Structure formats: C-alpha cells, structure tokens
C-alpha cells in the first residue's frame, strides 16, 4: 500500500487511454478525434440541463485532490472483529471516502453519511425545521436583538461568498462527498 488515495481524475484518463488511445494527442484528449471516433454517439451541444452554483469547480478540485490519510481498525471497540462482514467507519467523511476508493470502488452495498450540518461546528445557518416567522429568523441569525430591534450588523450585512446564507456553500461541501460515495456503490447500492 503506497499511502495515497486513488487519483480519480488520473484513473479515468488511464482507462480512457486504454479504451481509446487514438483520441489522445500529447497526453491530452483531442475532442475532435473523440467525436470522429464515436460518431453520432457524441453530442457537443451547449444546450442541456445542469445543476450549477458558485464554487462548483472548486468542489470538483477538492474531490480530485488525493489524500494521505489512512484508516486503522480499533479492535478494542469492535465486536467480533474477525467474524463480521460489516465495517463501521467514523471520521471526516471526505477523507474517509477518498481512502476507500482504491479498495472498495464499486463494492459497497450501503453508505450512510451524516454530513456536517447544523452541528454548531459549521458555517451553515439553515435549520432542519422549516417553519419560523421572519422575526424568529432574524433573531436566529443575529439581525435582531432581544428587544426586537434590528442590529447594526443586520442592517448592513453583506452576503459574502463565505456566508452561511449561501446554499452554494452547502452544495460545495456535499458534492465531493456524494460523488466519491457513488463511486463506491455496487450497482444495487444505496446512499442515505
């Protein structure tokens, strides 16, 4: 074991090189050759449905960055370690998912991820319950004081890209995790 996680991007490029070596020119994909090779099966139209948000390209880079993290079994905390066919892994889920890519790609039947959300240790301000008044919301995010008056911060708050008010922050956090988890699933696998 070399101590590095699977480099997903490079792995896909290598698989594509094995399958279609003729579409590569100086280690890069020649899109015109790819189109010519696959003919009508390739469509280069700009018109399509996509889910896009600010920071998506950064999220994709995060998932492609290899990790040097490792997993070590805790036999003292385990029950029937040598006999069980199940594994419970506790850790930062992005790093764990990267570590598992080499050994478990396409082999896992069920993944349960508890993403960091409303734990107090994150920057997301969205509640898990979806009914509150505007006054309750403004109080929760600090825009109103105990007496119900707008705070200076609330009056002049700029919704910066680092703000928990942006759904894109949550999407950027979840995208790499779901992408890597999907790679681990068998054809009949499921993610919760």
Structural notes for this entry:
With 192 residues, the protein is mostly helical. The chain has one domain (8-117, 165-191). Helices cover 36% and strands 8% of the residues. It is built from seven helices and four strands; from the N terminus they run αββαααβαααβ. The strands form two sheets. It has a two-stranded antiparallel sheet with strand order 1-2. A two-stranded parallel sheet has the order 3-4. β1 and β2 form a beta hairpin. α3 packs parallel to α7 (167-184) and α4 (93-104) runs parallel beside α7. The longest helix is centred in the last third of the chain and has 18 residues, at 167-184. The protein is flat.
In short:
The protein is mostly helical and about 190 residues long. It has helices at about 10-20, 30-40, 55-65, 95-105, 135-140, 150-155, 165-185; strands spanning about 25, 30, 110, 185-190. The protein is built from seven helices and four strands.
């Amino acid at each position: 074991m070399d101590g590095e996680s699977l480099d997903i991007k490079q792995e896909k490029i290598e698989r594509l090189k094995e399958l279609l070596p003729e579409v590569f020119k100086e280690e890069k994909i020649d899109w015109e050759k790819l189109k010519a090779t696959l003919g009508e099966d390739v469509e280069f139209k700009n018109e399509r449905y996509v889910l896009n948000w600010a920071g998506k390209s950064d999220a994709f880079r995060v998932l492609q960055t290899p990790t040097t993290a490792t997993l070590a079994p805790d036999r003292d905390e385990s029950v029937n370690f040598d006999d069980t066919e199940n594994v419970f892994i506790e850790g930062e889920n992005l790093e764990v998912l990267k570590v598992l890519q080499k050994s478990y790609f396409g082999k896992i039947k069920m993944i349960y991820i508890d993403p960091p959300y409303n734990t107090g240790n994150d920057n997301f301000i969205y509640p898990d319950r979806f009914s509150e008044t505007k006054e309750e919301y403004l109080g929760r995010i600090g825009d109103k004081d105990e007496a119900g008056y707008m705070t200076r911060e609330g009056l002049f708050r700029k919704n910066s890209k680092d703000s928990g008010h942006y759904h894109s922050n949550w999407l950027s956090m979840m995208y790499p995790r779901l992408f890597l988890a999907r790679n681990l699933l068998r054809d009949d696998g499921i993610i919760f």
